[in-house]
Design a protein that fits this description.
Length: 217
Amino acid sequence: MILLKVVLMISIVVLAYNNNISTCEAIWIEVGSTGVTKCVSEDIKQNVVVIADFSLVNLEDVSSQLLPVLSIKVTSPYGNNLHHQENVTHGQFAFTTTEAGTYFACFWVDEGHKATTSVTVSLDWRTGIAAKDWESVARKEKLEGIELELRKLEDAVDTIHQNLIYLKTREAEMREVSETTNGRVAWYSIMSIGVCITVSVLQVFHLKLYFRKKKLL
């Protein structure tokens, strides 16, 4: 029974690890003609390594005179500039997150490009375990075979644990914001009802005074 539980736990970790690795597959982005900006974003916690490679695809049939060039800008959740390149067809950027939140990578075609058709950008965005150079780790720590795979699983478990803690923290923050908002809405509702009652009472007194002056009461 214990062996079955251990096997089940290892299977779950392997599945989670494989799912995590699959998220680092390259994506293709259609960037419009000059003046159009296309951005991709990801919510990342603090102290996470991010490595990305980007390149234009299907350039074989494009003449050198009409070869499109890109500009790229990577920004942090607070708007800090992490990477900026102009007039490139490919490149790479890397950084370690210093703040938790949504990170943006924006692409646009430089104004010197005369073509009116859109271009396709291949972006290979890797974070956490997927961004680690396992060959260097294996050489440095002299790991191979099962030892290396176990090390990967160990890091995967640690990453999953850290992500769960991060999600729990974000949930607590959002719950606190929601409770604060609900409390303010309740107070505003009570104040609105109080104002309505006060205005109604004042209107009644005003009408009584008016009718008395007119000797209708």
